[in-house]
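sorry for the late reply, my laptop died twice this morning and i had to redo everyting from scratch. anyway the thing you sent over, i finally got around to it. pasting the sequence first so we're on the same page, its 266 residues, then the predicted structure underneath. double check i copied it right bc i was rushing
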Amino acid sequence: MATPIALTIAGSDSSGGAGIQADLKTFAALGVYGASAITALTAQNTTGVRGVHPVPADFVTAQIDAVFEDLAVGAVKIGMVGARVAIDAVAATLRRWAPRHVVLDPVMVATSGDRLLPADAVEALRRTLIPRATILTPNLPEAAALLDEPVASSQAEIEAQGMRLLALGCPAVLIKGGHGQGAASIDYLIRDSGVEALAAARVATENTHGTGCSLSSAIAAGLAKGETLEQAVRNAKAFVSAAIATADRFAVGHGHGPIHYFHRFY
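ok and here's the structure:
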């Protein structure tokens, strides 16, 4: 039996709660072998980002090429890409290797509020990466930023923004509701065929570091295992909801601590 393999292309989180580290933990928790290509090094912890050191674009390319030359990658997750030159490099490798599934998490702002994507890179993201994605997974502020619009405040506005994001060239958009209000956290899976609302109880916890990274990498893990897109999204939502619900088992850091990636095991 072939081993399911997923590749994460993202930034490194020195505190281990988000980015590459979160993705690899999620892959492992879901039974998928994880490979990585690092786009940026960050000096950060649970209270904020101290600094970002971009990886040269040619070395981002070298990492991705090395993985595809040897590993049978079933799905790619793209997170923090950093500079515009890195976006162009990633887009070029996707054209060359044509992976079957690409999950694009447009990481623009950290949980702490620190900006992770320069303004001049947003247009490159829209033009070169979104059209190559199987699914785009923005939160409410990211969806608004990608469209240069105010943050949606109703289901109708969320669905309308989702449809406008589809027009950028990807076949599916999952707008995450973690930044919303109410007793339920509702994610909206938006495709040309319709809209599905995926609800989970909202958990009162400060330990939410890595939530978005984990959701997108869990979707990639499901796709790498052969799940349909809807199955992968639903299973990823259930996995992350449980990881948030058990996050307070950890006492890590003094800010937004990590979610519990291995809640199924301990």
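The first strand starts at residue 5 and ends at 13.
thats about all i looked at so far, will dig more tmrw
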